[in-house]
Design a protein that fits this description.
The protein is mainly alpha-helical. Helix content is 92%, strand content 0%. It is rod-shaped, with a radius of gyration of 16 Å. The model has no long low-confidence stretch (mean pLDDT 90).
Length: 36
């Protein structure tokens, strides 16, 4: 596996982690509002 491919894989992984973290933050923020 070339260095470029490894960098792309790492970037994709970190991007996915950021998306999942953002979604969980949005859900956590929306949940209390839904209970009211």
């Amino acid at each position: 596996m070339g260095r470029r491919a490894a960098e792309l894989a790492a970037a994709r992984f970190s991007l996915q982690a950021m998306v999942e973290r953002t979604q969980s933050l949005i859900l956590a923020a929306a949940r209390p509002a839904a209970l009211e």
